[in-house]
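Readers of this paper often ask what the protein records in our data store actually look like. Such a record has a labelled line for the sequence and another for the backbone structure tokens. Nothing more is needed to write down the fold, since each code stands for a local backbone conformation. The remainder of this section carries one protein's record, kept here as part of the documentation.
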Amino acid sequence: MKPVAALVPVLLVLFVCFRGTAAADTNDLVSTTEEFFLGFKDVEVVVDGVKIHAVVGGAGEPLLLLHGAPQSHVMWWELAPQFAKEFTVIASDLRGYGRSDKPRQGDYSKRQMAQDQIHLMAELGFDSFFIASHDRGSHVARRLAKDHPQAVRKMVVMDIIPATYVWENMNRQVANRFWAWTFWSQPYPLPETLMGPQAGEFARMSAGDDVRAGEDYEATNGSADAFHAMSEDYRASAGIDIEHDKADASEKIRVPTLVIWGSRSNTGGFDYPAIWEDEVENPSLIELDAGHFLVEEKPREVLQLIRNFFVEQ
């Protein structure tokens, strides 16, 4: 029997088990305003049939916070109350993550995910706002700044290289560092079948030593539907998002942008200044002695850098 053929029965068993994994009902989860965001309130809007969830608190100019994968708005729990002293803070869950809906057949292009956030902010009465973002949220913020530049006053992106650049410069070293990209973007149901049963553990691990956040990530992002949604997000980055990027590749982002990255992150092997100077008109660039999860590793430094960038004239 050929090796691949021998794996088929095993894959089928895993797939059946994975499909049977119950998705968490986000409507039954305790609000994060009771444990992480005291004084904030929950907000939900529906965009083309997809519920987008956020918590809102503070007063002042609007600041939209976008999270990475496999996390949620909870990644901002330590910084959001500090920002709320000067800003109206909106910490949102991207579609497919956290307490937002996870449609199995949904549009996970960064264009649509950016449109979700535009709709959320409009429902809250904001037609322009600041954005601070990390990882997948930064890919969404980048597309939002391209599609809706009038909506973004200033933008912070953390620890990303534009996805199309990564895909078009893929070699052995990049593929090893970005193994998750190459694996999760494989056609359905390969990633879901092989890694899906460990989705809860994977989501929890992204919180590091933060047990409370890890438990919440597991509850919201540890189901079969959640892992499938995340895979669809990565598939979009390797597909439709590249088409969108190529269509406006000649147009630089003119929104004032601060790029922060970790010297020890898997993205640190790229030439951040050269890449982002080609992407953004006059970007601000700061490297920190950190890995990928900058907010968790360097909360004080990140808080100060973002605040200074937003309040400076």
